[in-house]
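Case study 2.
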Amino acid sequence: MSINSTYVLAINGGSSSIKFSLFEARPELTAIFRGSVNGIGTAMGNLTVKGVAAADNFFRSQAADDHSMAVEGLMDWLEERMRGGDLAGVGHRVVHGGPKYAQPQRITDSLMQDLVDLSPFDPEHLPEEIELTQAFHRRFAHVPQVACFDTAFHHDLPQVAKLLPIPRRYEALGVRRYGFHGISYAFLMRELARVAGPDAARGRVILAHLGSGASLAAVRNGKSLDTSMSFTPTAGVPMGTRCGDLDPGLMWYLFRTQRMTARNFNEMVNFQSGLLGMSERSADVRDLLRVRATDVPAAEAVDVFCYQVKKWIGSFAAALGGLETLVFSGGIGENSPEIRAQICAGLEFLGIRLDSSSNAHGGAVISTSGSAVCVRVMATDEERMIAEMVCHVLGDGAAGALKLKAPAT
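Prediction:
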């Protein structure tokens, strides 16, 4: 790492972990460190860093009672490692931009107030993301920060997709389909244009971002036409701990029969449902695949997940008027041939035909040469997209960089 280089930090905060990447911005954007802070909400958290060279790998145990405490260890490490380098900017993945924000924005007092006001839209993520920006401002007050909104990719959904079938007065309050995973989808669409050509990216595309959080998007002419997540990230397909789409009448039933409160219902559908709730074993599909042959609830959880993803692919093919490209991404989509095969089985009527060997060996294209639909596996990189957005918002040279002090020796 060169002294006096300019660096951009991308922060991807979740409820119990923070992923991050540090990029050298000159002469071109290059990832030099990636890592995570895990175990947030516990006294046994840790900071893990992986560098370009194995000698740069780093692990440190630390208390992580909340996001502010968790990120302190990351900021300490930044000061230790950079030794006089310039931190030009920090970019944050902000899950919800509400009806107002369709482009990345430099974080100001006004924007911070808007995010506070938006917190009821996403109480599971926005308060922690606000906390992270405040923590960085306290330590590095002169380093500009940029909010990168996960809803932005879907901001201009057609009215028929974004309008929810409830009384119109709620639309004026910003209640609509927003969709999420937009930073990932923006990266995937750019990569699709790079590897398959601009015609493929302008065609009829379904993107399946399948991980502990999972969603799909229908894209045509590079624009999002529909997406499975809705007003919140709880909707759509079942996920690690989120239920996905659910009959809203269930809440009233559970209130009448179990005296379940709205708070407890929210806890259930966000943190106790999905693969975890159905299997009663794990939210991790890898754990469920290992035991599916002998564990009926685990097998059924996997089956429901694949069935629901298959249904969304079929419905989005109808919305697009056909399908030319299907992209699997995310932790499950990129790494589980078994899940990909089960999802695609029975979709031959759409023109999807998998090459079983290419799928099993992790090929970039896993469809046969005669398949009418090209099925691809693509690794996403949300942190790179965040870093690029920071550079775009702050401009060349990222004015306002703060010289980090070298640690005492």
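Confidence is low (pLDDT under 50) at residues 397-409.
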